[in-house]
Amino acid sequence: TGPIFRLENGIQMPGLGFGTFANEGSKGETHKAVVVALNAGYRHLDCAWFYKNEGEVGTGMREFLDANPSVKRSDIFLTTKVWNHLHEPADVEWSIKDSLRQLQTPYVDAFLVHWPIAAEKNADNTVKIGADGKYVINKDLTDNPEPTWRAMEKVYADGLAKSIGVSNWTEKGLKSLLSYAKVKPALNQIEIHPFLPQYELVSYCQSQGIAPVAYSPLGSQDQVPGTGEKVSTNKELNAIAEKKNATLAQVLIAWGLKRGYAVLPKSSNPARIVSNAKLITLTDEEFEAVNKVADKRHSRFVNMKDTFGYNVWPEEA
Ligand code: A2P
């Protein structure tokens, strides 16, 4: 279902993807959600080593493929990511192999550097947390991720990932990465919704042949600090959806696809997983009406500054 985006290396990426980030402790939820999503027609699954549920994605995908022999693994675009404390080259390789084992597949379609931050690890391979309760930053690899990117390139050359890319990177970080990359990042997965439209970063990525992919395209369920506003209760956005006889989620998904990037709506509710996959298209007027709400906004809901003890977006204070 929906548009397919062609990455610079020729790999085809379905525009509608399913986000699998789930609360820890809700065992079995991801497995069920993945089966529902694949049955609903999603052919793009977004995963990460950090989500600690890749085993469930793997069993869900396996269950679906076994029950639907006409669908092949190669019909699904599967993404995973390497977490911050695994940026040393040997760890990058270990990370993707661990993800592949859990996902029960010999390759992923995209392997991303989850954050532009490298952290130290403990001897038992867990993240090193400092006395302040925050990640202990590996300054060298954060300031110069070239060795990490070389390891990503090796994973690509070895065929463990059909494409490699990044997540949460800024234009500045991408420019630096492009200066030494032998294999260019094929994608940059970032938070995008009407309260964080990212017009400049999206255009920059598109101008460089780096496909933007939107996480939290529905704008989370959180409030904007200070104003208490929520995307989900925004009057103008809801009026657009109501007039169209669609859900707000469907409008937001359509807005992202019309802007030319893939979207990763996430839900653990079967009815919402299914309805989000019923794609609609926006007229130019409807598209502009969403743009009008988005204009000049910049409210980020996903910001790990407090956890990392490091600000990826210093310009945002
Ligand atoms: P739920 O799992 O209960 O459906 P994020 O923006 O961080 O990806 O989070 C998406 C949020 O939007 C989730 O909390 C999800 O909750 C909710 N959601 C997903 N689809 C819909 C929908 N169609 N209508 C309302 N809320 C939705």
UniProtKB/TrEMBL annotation:
Gene3D superfamilies xref list: NADP-dependent oxidoreductase domain
Active site positions: Y51 (proton donor)
Binding locations of substrate: H114
Source taxon at top rank: Eukaryota
Record-marked site positions (Lowers pKa of active site Tyr): K81
PROSITE patterns linked to this entry: ALDOKETO_REDUCTASE_1, ALDOKETO_REDUCTASE_3
Record's keyword terms, sorted: Oxidoreductase
Gene Ontology MF terms: oxidoreductase activity, acting on the CH-OH group of donors, NAD or NADP as acceptor
Domain NADP-dependent oxidoreductase: 16-294
Pfam short name (any one): Aldo_ket_red
Alphabetized InterPro entries for the sequence: AKR, Aldo/ket_reductase_CS, NAD(P)_OxRdtase_dom_sf, NADP_OxRdtase_dom
Xref: PANTHER family: ALDO/KETO REDUCTASE
Protein name: NADP-dependent oxidoreductase domain-containing protein
